[in-house]
Structure formats: structure tokens, C-alpha cells
Amino acid sequence: MFIETERLIVRTFREEDVSALYQIAYDPDVLEYCPDLLKRDVTEAEVLEFIQDFIRIDAENDTDTWRCYAIENRGTGEVMGCVTFGKNNMLNEYEIGWMMLKKHTKKGYASEAAQAYAEYFCAAYGVDYLIVVMDTDNPASYRAAEKCGFRLFEKRTVYDYHYNRYGDDYYYFRRYAAGCTRRERFYGDVPYTGRGADL
């Protein structure tokens, strides 16, 4: 997979990107919000295995399995972060995310990369929308989501039936494809005329 934007290249990770992806996984900001981006305490050897899996997933045109794509600076060739993508197992919807090295945050790179990938995927596979889910205490990702065209759908609370308790709240965003013909996208898009009005 290879996408070019004004400032970036969003592409499949290569085996020579091991050090870059390792640095992303251990970046303080990434550890704060996603300590298990690849897995906890991941080693460089394991990062190589992840990259080999990402290459295989792309080669097989697998749209569902989770993977990462490199966000590369077109001018310098530096890998500055990654786009994450796959089908959310709990929600059964395609989910996108992003992780940036701290030194490259607040420059619009994450939203530029996410918007480019969202447009590409929806057009290539005829998907109506992608989702983003995030912790409610992550204002930077909230702003990035809005900047690349995602709109807050709702704030959700998870109930854990195994432990009989509520989990952490999270934000659920959607971004609809340009060619999507759905009328009902967000709450309030279609007037509610009362229960049984159409009977």
C-alpha cells in the first residue's frame, strides 16, 4: 500500500523500518495512550515479526486483520509515526488510528495521514464509513479526528459482564466516504416523528 499526500507518504512498513517502529512503540506519548501498540515489552526481533506480518496482510489483500502503516516524511524519508487499521472485533466496523513520535506532534501529520488513508480505503473497497475510538482523556487525538473529517457520534460506556462492572468511557467517531448515500448518518439526521408514526 502506498499513498502520497502533500507532505507525507503512507505506506506498508518495510523490514528496514524495525528501528523506527520500535521507537514509535516506546515513545512516551504512545505508551501513555496505547502501551500495547504491538505488545507490551516488545523487542526489536518481535517488531521485525510484526512488520513481516503487516507485509503478508497487505500481500493477501486482507482488509480485516489489524496492521500498521508507516507515516513517512516525503522530504526527509523519516518514519514519524504510523496509521493503525483493521476491523474492530467488538464493533465489527473498520477502525483507523494513529500514533506519532512526540517530536512530530502538533504539526497536522496524523490528521493528514489518516484522512488520506480513510479516503483511499473507502474508495478502493466501497466502504461507507470508518470509525475512530479513543479514550476520553486524549484531547490531541480528539482534535486530530475532527481535523481529518471524523465527527463525534457518541460517548460510550463499556459494561464488563465478566467482572460485573463498568469499564472506561470512550469516544466513538465516524467519517463517511465522499460517495456515501446513507441518509441516516448521525443522530438527528432524519426527523423523528414518534413511535408508530409510519404504521
Q: Secondary-structure element order, as H and E?
A: EEHHHEEEHEHEE
Helical percentage = 25-40%
Corresponding CATH superfamily of the domain at 2-128:
Gcn5-related N-acetyltransferase (GNAT)
The rough form would be described as globular
Question: If helices are DSSP runs of H or I spanning 4 or more residues, what is the number of helices?
Answer: 5
Strand neighbour order, sheet with most strands: 1-2-3-4-5
| SS-derived structural category | alpha+beta
- Cα radius of gyration in angstroms: 18 Å
The amount of beta strand, in percent, is 25-35%
Topology, number of strands: 8
Mean pLDDT: 92
Largest sheet: 5 strands, antiparallel
CATH class value of the domain at 2-128: Alpha Beta
Kindly report how far apart the N and C termini lie: 49 Å
- In CATH, the topology of the domain at 2-128 is named Aminopeptidase
Question: Topology of this structure?
Answer:
Elements: E1 2-4, E2 8-12, H1 18-25, H2 28-33, H3 44-59, E3 67-73, E4 79-88, E5 93-100, H4 109-125, E6 129-135, H5 139-147, E7 151-160, E8 165-176
Antiparallel strand pairs: 1-2, 2-3, 3-4, 4-5, 6-8, 7-8
Helix pairs in contact: 1-3, 4-5
